[in-house]
Amino acid sequence: MLARPDAYRCIECGLPYRAAGFRHYRGKIEDGAAYWSDRGTLCSSQCSLAHNRKREAEGTLPQAPVPDPLQSQPLSRR
Fold this sequence. Notes:
Elements: E1 35-37, E2 40-42, H1 45-58
Antiparallel strand pairs: 1-2
């Protein structure tokens, strides 16, 4: 059987959303990613910090908290 592609990946390192090591809110994949930005999801606190540093250097930090990108599109387990 072919593995289906994961629609979400960490925007810093490319780790797929369902991969081991991707941190989820409360440790549950159904609760969504633990870290995200206006540009997408992040797999860990390390990638979140790296992303923030990069955005700070670019001068593109968001001015307000952004909504959870997965909240409007619930994940289905097949």
